Structures are given as structure tokens and as C-alpha cells.
Amino acid sequence: MAAGMAMAPAQAKQEDEDAEEDESAAKQVQTSFTIKLLKFDEKNKVKLIKEIKALSANMNLVQAKKFVESIPAVVKADIGKDEAEKIKEQVEKAGGECVIE
User: Fold this and answer.
1) β-strand 96-100 against 33-40: which pairing, if any?
2) Which DSSP state fits 43?
3) Which residue from 76, 64, 59, 62 is spatially nearest to 40, judged by alpha carbons?
């Protein structure tokens, strides 16, 4: 029985270390964000298409229309938090609903 008691504190210590490792991994700061368009208000579709075109330099109106109609779709990926929040605000003003991931 003494051997079983000696192992219990060692196991508890190991579990505490594992929990600390999990917490430190969760505390890492996310530096890269993705904006994803989930849905949009149908009456603001044209406004949203123009906004998507403006946000994507290499996209024409036809491509922007297809992009909006193919939701859910990633508007921009691997961008900073400030830029992601700015883009989200612009898209929502234009009638789209998006999320930062």
C-alpha cells in the first residue's frame, strides 16, 4: 500500500504540469486572422458586391458578384487583427455578415 501512496503525489504533480502546458498553449496570441463572409442582406447585395470588389484589388464586378453569391467564403486571410476588424466593419456596413477567425 505504501508504494501506491507514493505514486499518487507523483501522478498529481504530472497532471498539474500537463494542465500548465495546456494553459500556456492557450495563452499564445493569435497574430493571423481570416475574415469569412457568412451571409448578406439581399436588398444590399449590390452595395456588398462593390465593397468586396474594392477590398480585392484583383477582382472585377462579375467575380465579386460570384464571390458574394458563393457564401460562405473567405474575404481575406492571414491578416492582422486591426486590418481584420476594419474589413469586418466595412463589410457589415455594406450589408454582409462576417466573422473573424
Assistant:
1) antiparallel
2) G
3) 64
Q: How far is CA 42 from CA 36, 37, 45, 48, 66, in A?
A: 18, 14, 5, 9, 14
Instruction: Render each residue's pLDDT in the chain as its tens digit; 101 residues.
Output: 555 555 555 555 555 555 555 555 556 777 889 999 999 988 999 999 999 999 888 899 999 999 999 989 888 889 998 999 999 999 999 999 999 98
First to last CA, the chain: 51
Strand, helix or coil for residue 36: strand
pTM above 0.70, yes or no: no
